[in-house]
Write a structure and sequence with these properties.
mainly alpha
Length: 224
């Protein structure tokens, strides 16, 4: 079992709050973290208003993954100065009738899986860390989340982030295996071609001699 949570701690690369070394590219735009992309997708959907789509950009451009998450809640709140500074942005979005995808709860797992696949396909460092976990069970260990996380000490959460990370890891491992097998098959083909070419080379070497013998025989007949 490998636990992770904080982006700056061990296996922090597995966290959605980890700022990627290679920003995630999605439909021509880059996202600093998987959290940025996941939260932005809540406002990009068929039938979304121009205001909602524009708000997705606001979420994408948030300075930190946590800010993107807070903006996506569309809820004002108190706290630190940086948190208070987000309230006017959220209030304007509410006034503009910005709305999340009404089907989000039904599709959020699929969206998260897509985001994770993009992250680990594109960021070689994060991919290396994920593959280093081998076949170990992965768990977002926190008592703050019983859906994406494992619920903390009780381990009673669904741990969906961990589940989808393991699914992503398996797909990458299978892809690596497939490519290795293809490389092996190509190497075998090269060897086969080399073997098949060898006799042909010998035949080519023999042809001049046969031609000369044929010419000699023709000359001999001519002289008779």
């Amino acid at each position: 079992m490998i636990d992770f949570y904080e982006a700056k701690e061990s296996f922090g690369e597995l966290s959605n709050y980890y700022v990627c070394t290679q920003p995630i590219l999605y439909e021509g735009k880059t996202y600093d973290s998987s959290e940025h992309l996941y939260q932005s997708l809540k406002f990009i959907y068929d039938g979304a208003s121009p205001e909602s789509i524009a708000y997705a950009e606001t979420v994408r451009e948030a300075k930190t993954p946590n800010m993107s998450k807070i903006l996506a809640t569309l809820k004002t709140g108190g706290g630190y100065a940086w948190r208070l500074a987000l309230n006017p942005i959220i209030s304007k979005a509410l006034a503009d009738k910005v709305t999340r995808n009404p089907q989000w709860e039904q599709i959020k797992d699929a969206k998260m899986e897509m985001v994770l696949q993009l992250k680990f396909q594109q960021d070689s460092h994060c991919r290396k860390v994920l593959l280093s976990t081998g076949t170990s069970k992965l768990a977002e260990h926190t008592n703050r989340d019983f859906y994406w996380g494992d619920g903390g000490e009780s381990r009673s959460g669904k741990n969906m982030l961990g589940v989808l990370l393991m699914k992503t890891r398996e797909k990458i491992q299978e892809e690596k295996k497939r490519k290795a097998e293809e490389s092996g098959e190509q190497a075998e083909k090269v060897d086969t071609v080399a073997v098949s070419v060898a006799p042909q080379t010998e035949n080519i070497k023999e042809k001049p001699k046969k031609i000369l013998d044929w010419i000699a025989k023709k000359r001999a007949k001519t002289m008779e």
